[in-house]
Amino acid sequence: MDQPNARTAEIITILAQTYPKAGCELNFSNPYQLLIATILSAQCTDIKVNAVTKSLFADYPSAQEIIKLSQTELENIIRPLGLFHNKARNILSTSQILLDRYQGEVPSDMASLVSLPGVGRKTANVILSNAFNFPALAVDTHVFRVSRRLDLTRGKTPHQVELDLTAQIPRDLWSKTHHLLIWHGRRICKAQKPACPSCPLLDLCPSAQ
């Protein structure tokens, strides 16, 4: 990776010009709702999650409300999103822990977040970045794929990719870069049949087809 910082800066600049409205595409009104939506988004699109949470959050907007549901009732609501058994169990367990330990509020530190059922480092970074405006760079499947194709990293795990990216990107751009890479991955640099000929990064990408 020749002069990674300068090259990375150019990539971020081009992506920012291409996607000026890049941001979180999950709908939420507070940190708790973002936490639940992010748990639901595992192996599922944000569009599908938003379709389900629109009614879920209208009827059950907080941890206090959601724990009134039985696991079967919650499973029936979120069934279209897949993995509904594990997701329902984790949501109910996490909601109860938030009530027992944090007065129903979502904690704003990595250690506390990853201790919650169904919350890994990626989800925690999403919460820290989008709910609390802390510098964080969550590595999901899109960030992992796009950053490796661009040779911004050769990390083989999401955590290693996160470390590589944050080492060469200014701290105040971590959250923005996360969204830019996701938007690019969803729209151009798709897992199957990436649209390389129309990619604004074509001349900078060693993986271009």
From TrEMBL:
Any Pfam family the entry gives: EndIII_4Fe-2S
Gene Ontology molecular functions: 4 iron, 4 sulfur cluster binding; class I DNA-(apurinic or apyrimidinic site) endonuclease activity; DNA binding; DNA N-glycosylase activity; metal ion binding
Hydrolase in keyword set: yes
PROSITE patterns named among the record's database cross-references: ENDONUCLEASE_III_1, ENDONUCLEASE_III_2
Binding residues for [4Fe-4S] cluster: C189, C196, C199, C205
Catalytic activity: 2'-deoxyribonucleotide-(2'-deoxyribose 5'-phosphate)-2'-deoxyribonucleotide-DNA = a 3'-end 2'-deoxyribonucleotide-(2,3-dehydro-2,3-deoxyribose 5'-phosphate)-DNA + a 5'-end 5'-phospho-2'-deoxyribonucleoside-DNA + H(+)
Highest taxon of the lineage: Bacteria
Cofactor binding comment, as recorded: Binds 1 [4Fe-4S] cluster.
The protein's Enzyme Commission number: 4.2.99.18
Key words, A-Z: 4Fe-4S, DNA damage, DNA repair, DNA-binding, Endonuclease, Glycosidase, Hydrolase, Iron, Iron-sulfur, Lyase, Metal-binding, Nuclease
GO terms of biological process kind: base-excision repair, AP site formation
Cofactor: [4Fe-4S] cluster
SUPFAM superfamilies: DNA-glycosylase
HhH-GPD domain: residues covered: 40-187
Chain's role: DNA repair enzyme that has both DNA N-glycosylase activity and AP-lyase activity. The DNA N-glycosylase activity releases various damaged pyrimidines from DNA by cleaving the N-glycosidic bond, leaving an AP (apurinic/apyrimidinic) site. The AP-lyase activity cleaves the phosphodiester bond 3' to the AP site by a beta-elimination, leaving a 3'-terminal unsaturated sugar and a product with a terminal 5'-phosphate.
Listed PANTHER family: A/G-SPECIFIC ADENINE GLYCOSYLASE/ENDONUCLEASE III, ENDONUCLEASE III
Family assignment from sequence similarity: Belongs to the Nth/MutY family.
HAMAP family with a match to the protein in the record: Nth
UniProt name for this protein: Endonuclease III
Gene name per UniProt: nth
